Amino acid sequence: MPVLPRRWRLPYLALLTVVGLLLSASALEAYRLSGGKHPWEPFLWEFSSVSVIGALALAVHALMGRLAGQPWPRQLAVHAVALLLFSGLHIAGMFGIRLLVYALVGAEYHPDAVPTLLVFEGGKDAVSYLSFCLISRGVWAAQAANARAQELDRARRELAEARLARLADQVQPHFLFNTLNLISSVMYEDVPRADRLLCDLAQLLRQTLAAQQRAEHSVGEELALVAPFLALMQARFGPERLVVEIDADDAARACRLPALLLLAPVENAVKHDVARHRGRVTVRVAAARAGDRLRLQVSNVADATPAEPAPTDPDGGLGLRNLRERLQARYGGAAQVHFGPDAAGMTLSLDLPCAC
After folding, report:
1. What is d(CA 299, CA 104) in angstroms, rounded to the nearest whole number?
2. Span 126-182, pLDDT tens digits
């Protein structure tokens, strides 16, 4: 990290200018009271000191960065030498600038004797050096803390992304195995139908694999995956047993969500409800936007009492547990999930932040 990042260079120069002006204004009043005849002299005196001090302060800051983590005896020895250099360079630079300017304007300048300057300026330089060291230590500590915080945030993001990728990877095999089981149940009864189902499945898998590579996509794209899956299941069970309804407004379709989020709930609706009923079951997928919230709903309504008992898993099985984990990893507490019986069927309701 540079001693003075580019974005801080102009503010630093502005700070030195303000300090120089304040000191010059204070010295100007005393200069006038003492009978001084050249009002520019206090400005030269103060700005010559401030400019050199400003450059040396950056050197002190760089030194403090290099000494970080070094043993204390070594640091004290380095600071003892650095203080002498700091004071010597300050005195030489400051009076060098003054003598040069006075020579250019043809005015006389008689500084104090060198021993007097070393004592007078050396005491002030010691205080300045110590102050710069303390300030620099605080700055380096703050920068280190900020770097650690950024690294921690980056590690957390990478961990969350890895977790989301792992959870998303679980969707594909789970969906695939259940679909293949459904196809295997008809392949000996109706070979042409099984062949059509396999072709539809291959196309759907290509789409889901492409969706997984993007991690998230729009609701419209998610429904473009749900629709062929339901068409596949409708071909499996027949339109007389499975009725499909998809209802989503344009505002909801533009919202983004994790890829393949709705496949597991829709699959559960077919697996645990359509398969258990002998009558007609309506599976409905709805999406609506309310302000900055996206509300999704997957529900099923059966016309008759199920022939088989309902599953005992209150979480809705692996697919819905996976969904909850994905939403927790992606949205934290900003996502709400409700799953349970509703009228003559089951309903899964999701309330998520809508990001377009």
Report:
1. 90
2. 999 999 999 999 999 988 888 888 888 787 767 666 655 555 555 455 556 766 777
Tokens of residue 96, six digits: 């060098």
Q: Using alpha carbons only, give the angle 92, 95, 101 rounded to the nearest 5 degrees.
A: 135
3-class DSSP state of 36 = coil
Residue that has been written with the tokens 């709705």 in this structure: 262
Average pLDDT over residues 316-336: 79
What span, in angstroms and rounded, lies between the C-alpha atoms of 132 and 265? Answer: 62
Domains of the chain by residue range: 6-152, 185-353
Token pair 């260079």: residue: 9
In this prediction, residues 13-22 reach a mean pLDDT of 93
- Burial-class residue 172 by CB neighbours within 10 Å (0-12, 13-18, 19+): middle
- Residue 327 vs residues 128, 173, 335: alpha-carbon distances, Å: 55, 19, 6
Cβ contacts of 36 within 8 Å, gap of 6 or more: 42
The pLDDT of residue 341? 84
Look-up of token digits 């998520």? 352
Contact 97, 20 (CB under 8 A): no
Burial 99-137 (b: 16+ CB within 10 A, else e): eebbeeeeeeeeeeeeeeeeeebbeebeebbeebbeebe
Measured in Å, how far apart are the chain's first and last C-alpha atoms? 36
**pLDDT (tens digit, 9 = 90+) per residue, 19-30?**
999 999 989 988
CB-count burial class (<10 Å; 0-12, 13-18, 19+) for 75: middle
Rounded to whole angstroms, how far apart are CA atoms 176 and 181? 9
- Identify the CA nearest to 232 among candidates 202, 277, 259: 202
Beta strand 256-258 pairing with 281-290: unpaired
Q: Which CATH superfamily is domain 185-353 in?
A: Histidine kinase-like ATPase, C-terminal domain (3.30.565.10)
Rounded CA gap, 354 and 292, in Å?
Answer: 5
Question: In the block, which residue shows the tokens 């749900």?
Answer: 226
Interior angle at CA 224, CA 288 and CA 342, nearest 5:
45
